[in-house]
Structure prediction request, 129 residues.
Amino acid sequence: MANGAWRRQQRENWLGRLREWSRSGEALKPYMSAHGVPLWQAHRWLRMLQREGLWPATTQGPARATKGSQCASQSVRFARVTLTESTAEKPENSGSLIARLILKNGRRVRLDLAEGQLARVLEMLEAVP
Prediction:
């Protein structure tokens, strides 16, 4: 098997294994130990898949339900937001807004919003289940 094909197969195997771990609700160490997988390998693949944008960059383990939560499958996540003033990239219209988002899969999005568009974008995002 060619090196590239072997690497793709390993990537798919680890993605499947990590998805199973994430659904299990267990911490990484006991899960991998129970499945006979060295913890260092799991960490190595987590980092590699995160760099490739195939696994969320902020993985801290599976989301856990807390007392009072409505559903174990729903988790509340907060995004760190940093507001900076950039002199290199000013919108032409003073009412414009440039928003840069980093999604949990690592993908980056840049939105150039005119005045009034932010409310519409938020409305659309909140409508997504």
Remarks:
- The chain has two domains: 3-51, 78-129.
